[in-house]
Amino acid sequence: MATLYVSPHPDDFRSLLALITAEFCRSSRPRTVTEDPPASLNARSRPILVLGAGEGDCVLSGASAVAWYLALQGKIAGVDVKQQSLVWQWLSFADNELTPVSGAVVFSLMGMIGVDKKLQQSSRVELIRVLKVLNRALEPRTFLVGESITLADVAVATAVLLPFKYALEPSDRKVLTNVTRWFTTCINQPQFLKVLGKITLCEKMVPIAANTTLATDAEAANGSPAADPTSATANGPPKTEAQLKKEAKKREKLEKFNQKKEIEAKKKTQPPTEKKAKPEKKELGVITYDIPTPAGEKKNVLSPLPDSYSPQYVEAAWYSWWEKQGFFKPEYGRTSITEQNPRGIFMMCIPPPNVTGSLHLGHALTNAIQDCLTRWHRMRGETTLWNPGCDHAGIATQVVVEKKLMREGGVSRHDLGREKFIQEVWKWKNEKGDRIYHQLKKLGSSLDWDRACFTMDSKLSYAVQEAFIRMHDEGVIYRSKRLVNWSCTLNSAISDIEVDKKELTGRTLLPVPGYKEKVEFGVLVSFAYKVDGTDEEVIVATTRIETMLGDTAVAVHPADPRYQHLKGKTVLHPFCDRKMPIVFDDFVDISFGTGAVKITPAHDHNDYEVGERHNLAFINIMDENGLLINVPPPFLGMKRFEARKAVLQALKDRGQFKEVKDNPMVVPVCSRSKDIVEPLLKPQWYVNCTEMGKEAADAVREGRLKIIPDHHLKTWFNWMDNIRDWCISRQLWWGHRIPAYFITVHDPFVKPGEDMDGHYWVSGRSEEEAREKAAKRFNVSADKITLRQDEDVLDTWFSSGIFPFSIFGWPNETQDLNVFYPGTLLETGHDILFFWVARMVMMGLKLTGKLPFNEVRPVEAAKNHYVAQLDMMLVLDGHNSVMMMFLLQVYLHAVVRDAHGRKMSKSLGNVIDPLDVITGISLEGLHAQLMDSNLDPVEVEKAKQGQKSDYPNGIPECGTDALRFALCAYTSQGRDINLDVNRILGYRHFCNKLWNAVKFTMKTLGNNFVPSEKAQLCGEESVSDRWILSRLSAAVGLCDAGFKAYDFPAITTAIYNFWLYELCDVYLESVKPVFSKAEEDSTSQRQAQVCRKTLYTCLDVGLRLLSPFMPFVTEELYQRLPRRQPQSDPPSISVTSYPNTEEFCWHSEEVDRDMEFVMTVVKTIRSLRADYNLTKTRADCYLQCIDSATVSVVQKYSLQIQTLSSSQAIIPLTAGQPVPEGCAVAIASDRCTVNLMLKGLIDVEKEVAKLMTKKSDLEKQMDKMREKMTKNDYKEKVPVKVQEQDAEKVGKIN
């Protein structure tokens, strides 16, 4: 095992860097040691990492080297070479840029270096400047490199740790919003928390009152006299001159501090002076669209654009127009859906949300991804259908309506009766059930609403009935009495997905519906059974003591020597005359407890199987309400958990109780009712999944079906190979009533049947059909048959399993079914992969012979995107050996968490309604939502604090477009998305950038501009034009590749960078002089006209690239632009062609490379101007180039460099040409040095004085270091670590 030597000092950020990085090495975390490393290592500057366990160990020293090695082990050094290079750059940034200024600011506060207020202030200014650079880099990002945490984040976060703790006040953090957001995210990661604990951010920058140990450590680290081994203690020899000087400085500081306190105290006694009012903070503008526009009519786009972007203005009126125009229908633009489309077909059905549901961020994420894909395929010209639907949500809906009836009228469903209750549910559905559809429209989802389906509609209900009858007739669905998950509160069986597994570490009291007092769980009760005819006893243990009333055996292992003599013996039940056999079964764990297990076949899944193997009695001791039956008094009729106490007391009274002890366990809780789930024997309908599961598993094994990424394979095979039969009965009234009938035959020659006997059950599409089947089965006339339809309904997952083909009218051969089934893609959450996806695969293959989804092109899964692809390959062997590949695609999206990585929870106050992000909400509004929830008062208060912390000013209005863009940009984080509202707000500001760019362009184009019919080069483009068209083509290529690979962050990054950093920041700025001189002569006019065409092309293509992500703002802006072919161009951007690489093929690596060099020069000039505060003054700039090729590039781009750097003139020089005196110098690259003429522009004496002051300070530091290092015993007494630090300081000063 490797050993990591670190400093014990809590603020040694270099050691903290190594420790945090080590936390990512789950399987290879090194042993941590805080003592000095052994002298034999010859390297004592911590952190040190020793690899190996003997002589010849590999030793790594220095924070960067150690952290890099550990990051590689922990897989946070970057996923590829490009990312690793970026991580290394940030590591250098932390070392060379941040650490020096952070130390200069903080060390003086900690008393580690002398306090020079002037130096401290200048250092603080420099720190803020560096952090602003970091702030801009983080503006579009959550983490520095990629979309998950890397060593870059760890290194930079530890470099700014001390400033955040001690120096950056709230006002500073307000300026550095992106850095603060990112830093908070980092320190709340588990690895940071484990090392740092909870970090408190600085409220006011004051000297830090360190304890003695900390002060000593700090001084030792900096070589101050306190670290000098010759220093005397209070009772030692006389103090040295250095000590006396230090004490004098301390007294001076103390006097100044006391004087300051006195002044503050005087101020408090004086009457307060009137403070100058601070200017109000500029709020985000709210502009509304007030022009009367009937629903479905086109929005007025002739009025001028408002001054700034406002979501309320932009999002008004467009959706109803899109819908009325039929843009979302697959029939749009063609005579029939059966018409052959060479571009292909894209079909996707929505994972049907519950009718009771309301939109949450999980829905918003799902629909943002789905709608982007749908809009992209539609813009590519494919026949596109995104089919909406809603699930009837049997249990959830019935519970909602039952509560409503009880609240409003004090009646239960039983008071109303089944028929009237179902009428009430339909009434509720028609009033409230469409709410989620309205929310989906608010998100801009381009669904074909004319095809919307509800799982209880007649079309889908018929399909469900048909599926049941066909599978029942084949024997795949059968009747059996088995253990089910039973909710006593709901009086129904529930599916596994509706059972929450609550983990307990020991004794816990839990609330249970119907009980006033909480019930005890998490304990193991031991008691004894007497062996019949002997004085012996067998001790058993259970976590559910009340179930012993239904025990019918005791089991031991066949090889257990302790019980061999009890073969053939029985034990006596203490509360009745039941004799129970001692059975020998391999399932018993010899090592657990006494090795003897009580067997309750009717109330435990394992015991049920033992009971089957040994032909034991199955005694059901509980009815559907949880009351005890088939038990002796006094337990008869007791509630199950009251019987728990009574049985325990009765065992104690009989002397058969042994002990109670804590026992970690999992308690099954009904997710709907919060009741404790009971295993209960009930006759139910089951689907035999053995053969269907085998087909699904074999399809993967044989390569016909692929699941990507591979980590899902193990779960898939485990689930399919060990699949249990599926219980599809639910004891509800709302749902698809099971079309099965129990047969009573009125004939003396036919014996009466039992409920669990499948021979006496028949299914049919009507009672008449069922009667005919029954008469034929028993060979009697139909008039001798009486039928009773099963009261139960089908599990909701049954109708969901056939949803992909039932929505198209299956089993009827409809046009939609022939065209759109199988579909192309299913996009859903990974949590229901095997509850829904697997059932769709099994039932699709069973009932249609096809996989439910296909796509006619191979797709590669991007890393971390959780795409499960199921490929069905069909090879058509003919003369040309044609191969087609059909892909079942299942895109599994991420789980949404808050900005700190915490799971969304109402009790934390971090659950966000996406509509609140879209429209904005105050903090009071968020609090009000908590009051309407089911949280108890303590949780409400906790949640309020969480909201106050995360959203002190509420949530600002971000708009639909910004929310959609943010969610898609986040998807590469894998399974978890840490959603930060500030980042969404950043994308609203991005919308404003687009807005301003289009306003500028429209003004520049003028009213008479007519674009060419086709986007093409004319040959007269300037270097700026060629560069921006190259970058536009590159963006088109990245978006095309990104969509094909489902790499949404790659697409959003490409679009964001093009619009913000290339078009707005560079191109628009560089061409302003062209337009300002447009009327000077014919050449200038022609150049301006070419520039206008380029600008139009950029906006036209840029808006189309962005349209799938931001449909509202792109439509608003696109409608304002002139058309290339007004008579034939599509009426909406949503049905305009998506840009492709064949049309936009102007990418030039040479042009990109030249412009990258130019921008490096520009940034260097800007940096020099900032250093000398040349905010408005323009200076001549001499660019000394290494060769003639570089001179040529500078000459070619001189106008761009001059414009973008605000220079007076750009003068290229060869390497041999002299540079005029009076220039400030900076190296732009290995090819060019920037010389900025300052002569006559700055106060030279003032600048020289600054430099002399700095030089003097450095000389003082150097003298102090030399004095310390030349002492006789320095080498022997001062730790090697400190010596190395001193040498490093001297090197830096020199």
Automatic annotation (TrEMBL):
In this chain, the stretch annotated as Disordered covers 220-282, 1268-1294
- GO process annotations (BP): valyl-tRNA aminoacylation
Q: Which residues form a coiled coil?
A: 1241-1268
Q: Which GO terms describe its cellular component?
A: cytosol
Name the EC number(s). 6.1.1.9
Source taxonomy: Eukaryota, Metazoa, Chordata, Craniata, Vertebrata
Pfam families attached to this UniProt entry? Anticodon_1, GST_C, tRNA-synt_1
Family according to the record: Belongs to the class-I aminoacyl-tRNA synthetase family.
Name of the protein in question: Valine--tRNA ligase
Q: How does it assemble?
A: Forms high-molecular-mass aggregates with elongation factor 1.
* UniProtKB keywords: Acetylation, Aminoacyl-tRNA synthetase, ATP-binding, Coiled coil, Ligase, Nucleotide-binding, Phosphoprotein, Protein biosynthesis
Question: Is this entry keyworded Protein biosynthesis?
Answer: yes
Q: Where is the composition biased (Basic and acidic residues)?
A: 242-282
Q: Which major enzyme category is it?
A: ligase
Keyword Glycosyltransferase included in the entry's annotation:
no
Domain (GST C-terminal) spans 80-208
| Gene Ontology molecular function, alphabetical | aminoacyl-tRNA deacylase activity; ATP binding; valine-tRNA ligase activity
Reaction(s) the record says it catalyses: tRNA(Val) + L-valine + ATP = L-valyl-tRNA(Val) + AMP + diphosphate
- HAMAP family, per database record: Val_tRNA_synth_type1
